[in-house]
């Protein structure tokens, strides 16, 4: 539209000029070289216009001939560039679809046509990765790490390759360097924090969390939670040797996350040693309202040294009222009542839990009550122990398919921070041939299932248990998003047989439960 208007305006201007020249006739005299030429103004202007057109054509031909080699070279480069970009695009598609042969072919074409550009090096590295050529992938990533523009990307690839060959020292060095060059890189910060947690350097891990929060890489609630977990871990390690430091750290953790059970347990225990019973009770009660936990109940009942059994029963009643008679509160109260020789009250407290499939702890509590009142060899005590062998599970600390006796700040399988959750583990489906054998096993013998219970701090020589049938935890690939992400274990249908894994001596484990 605008072009048409401009054309019409120029046409009108030319017509106006022609009319003006016609209304103002005149002559032009040219005297040059002894010649005297006289012509009208219109003819002179026409001659000047024709001469200008001829000169422009001659100039265009001359410049075209002179610039022909450069034009041919530029056209060739453009064609090579377009072919290289097409090979690069096809190579990325081949990598995404998992075609190693096509990916390597297109990566070679892209490198030949485009040279060692960042994208061609990345395609070459990814093609080598899906082909299983780790050496070629590492060479490509090293080339990228040597270029300041792609240094962080190259360090990311080298970090993943180091993780694949289980060279944690080298992987940590790459992550630290990447975090120094680009403080906002998420994978590097997470890897550095995992390394600090693995070393037990909780203060350095806390600094990493604070730096990530200041850069806006995580929301404030998650940052507060992680800081509380790290402070709890530090208090846990300092509780025996430096109780004052551990108390301060536990109180800071409780302030950041009042519902964090391990922090409340440590704070309550250490404050009770200081004889600050009111503050200890307040902290334990606040955590108990959020998550009734047996450790909280144990700390609360033993706040004051030398309390009688009836005093502990009164404290247990307080916990029961705070949690609206949660099942955990009933277990705590029943235990206190049994210790006070109030066996009838203990049975009455547990009665609502006996109606619908009592759990293992409920059955064992009933067995202890019967044994304390009538003797350990009574039939009722043995009956409850037999029921405990096939009862549903109780809540426990679970992280990435592992059940632990005690809370730990990181997962023993993935190293993920704040991985343990207090919940009921999934039911285990026992194989049909194992059903009869489980009936004849002693009720106090260790039992092995698909999900095992392990100590919270496994030794370096002890294999880390995982869910039966699940693939071992692997390091993430270059195309994966997290530095050490893993999915929680899921319950699978009954397999032909449940594999038996070695369990360290003294490890409490749960007997497989068969569901008809």
TrEMBL record:
Residues 26-132 form the HemY N-terminal domain. The chain crosses the membrane at residues 41-72. Residues 449-516 are annotated as: Disordered. Residues 481-498 have a biased composition (Low complexity). One of its GO terms (cellular component) is membrane. The keyword Transcription does not apply. Its main location: membrane. It holds the Pfam family HemY_N. It is found in: Membrane. It comes from the Bacteria. InterPro entries: HemY_N, Mms48, TPR-like_helical_dom_sf. Keywords: Membrane, Transmembrane, Transmembrane helix. This is HemY protein. The lineage of its organism: Bacteria, Pseudomonadati, Pseudomonadota, Alphaproteobacteria, Hyphomicrobiales.
């Amino acid at each position: 539209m605008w072009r048409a208007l401009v054309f019409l305006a120029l046409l009108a201007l030319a017509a106006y000029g022609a009319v003006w020249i016609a209304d103002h006739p005149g002559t032009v005299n040219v005297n040059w070289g002894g010649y005297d030429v006289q012509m009208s103004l219109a003819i002179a202007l026409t001659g000047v216009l024709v001469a200008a057109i001829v000169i422009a054509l001659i100039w265009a031909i001359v410049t075209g001939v002179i610039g022909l080699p450069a034009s041919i070279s530029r056209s060739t480069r453009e064609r090579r560039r377009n072919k290289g970009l097409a090979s690069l695009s096809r190579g990325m598609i081949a990598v995404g679809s998992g075609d190693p042969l096509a990916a390597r072919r297109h990566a070679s074409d892209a490198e030949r046509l485009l040279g060692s550009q960042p994208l061609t090096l990345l395609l070459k590295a990814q093609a080598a990765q899906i082909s299983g050529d780790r050496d070629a992938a590492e060479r490509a990533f090293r080339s990228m790490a040597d270029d300041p523009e792609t240094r962080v990307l190259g360090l990311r690839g080298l970090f993943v390759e180091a993780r694949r060959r289980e060279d944690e020292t080298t992987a940590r060095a790459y992550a630290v360097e990447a975090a120094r060059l680009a403080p906002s890189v998420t994978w590097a910060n997470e890897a550095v924090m995992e390394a600090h947690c693995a070393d037990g350097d909780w203060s350095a891990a806390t600094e990493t969390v604070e730096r990530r929060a200041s850069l806006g890489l995580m929301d404030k609630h998650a940052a507060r939670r992680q800081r509380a977990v790290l402070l709890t871990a530090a208090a846990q390690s300092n509780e025996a040797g430096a109780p004052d430091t551990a108390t301060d750290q536990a109180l800071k953790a409780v302030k950041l996350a009042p519902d964090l059970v391990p922090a409340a347990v440590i704070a309550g225990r250490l404050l009770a040693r200081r004889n600050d019973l009111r503050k200890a009770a307040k902290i334990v009660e606040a955590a108990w309202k959020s998550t009734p936990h047996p450790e909280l109940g144990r700390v609360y009942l033993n706040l004051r040294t030398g309390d009688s059994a009836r005093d502990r029963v009164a404290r247990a009643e307080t916990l029961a009222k705070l949690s609206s008679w949660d099942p955990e509160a009933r277990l705590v109260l029943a235990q206190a009542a049994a210790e006070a020789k109030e066996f009838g009250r203990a049975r009455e407290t547990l009665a609502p839990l006996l109606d619908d499939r009592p759990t293992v702890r409920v059955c064992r509590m009933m067995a202890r009550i019967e044994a304390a009142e009538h003797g350990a060899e009574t039939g009722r005590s043995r009956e409850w122990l037999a029921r405990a062998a096939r009862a549903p599970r109780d809540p426990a600390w679970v992280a990435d398919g592992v059940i632990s006796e005690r809370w730990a700040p990181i997962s023993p399988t993935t190293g993920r921070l704040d991985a343990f959750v207090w919940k009921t583990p999934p039911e285990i489906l026992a194989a049909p041939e194992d059903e009869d054998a489980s009936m004849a096993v002693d009720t106090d013998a260790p039992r092995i299932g698909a999900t095992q219970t392990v100590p919270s701090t496994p030794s370096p020589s002890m294999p880390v248990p995982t869910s039966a049938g699940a693939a071992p935890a692997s390091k993430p690939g270059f195309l994966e998003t997290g530095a050490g992400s893993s999915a929680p274990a899921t319950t699978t249908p009954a397999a032909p047989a449940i594999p038996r894994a070695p369990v360290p001596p003294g490890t409490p484990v749960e007997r497989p439960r068969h569901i008809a």
